[in-house]
Amino acid sequence: METQSSLNKDERIEIRLSSSDKQVFMKAQKLSGDKTFSSFIVRVVKEKAEEIVAKNESIIASEKDKEKFFEAVFGNPQPNQKLIDAANKYKSQTALL
């Protein structure tokens, strides 16, 4: 839920656009049911911005996961002591068969 401070609308931006773009945007605003042109623009831009951020964050997360996976698989070719002990235990148990 948004906090009171995030509901304050004290920031402004200015954009310049062609009249044909504005006509398309205004038609879309009327079709969307948004009460004002500003609310339509803010809603649409915010939705797209959140989509871009989410996509970027998932790419970054998947890159980190990929790095961790390849490091785990190919990073250290030397087995640690637990793996050596497990291999020796397996060999001793299977040698009796």
From TrEMBL:
Keywords: Toxin-antitoxin system. One of its GO terms (biological process) is regulation of DNA-templated transcription. InterPro entries: Ribbon_hlx_hlx, TacA_1-like. The keyword Cytoplasm does not apply. It comes from the Bacteria. Coiled coil: none annotated. The keyword Transmembrane helix does not apply. It holds the Pfam family TacA1. Belongs to the TacA antitoxin family. This is DUF1778 domain-containing protein. It comes from Aquiflexum gelatinilyticum.
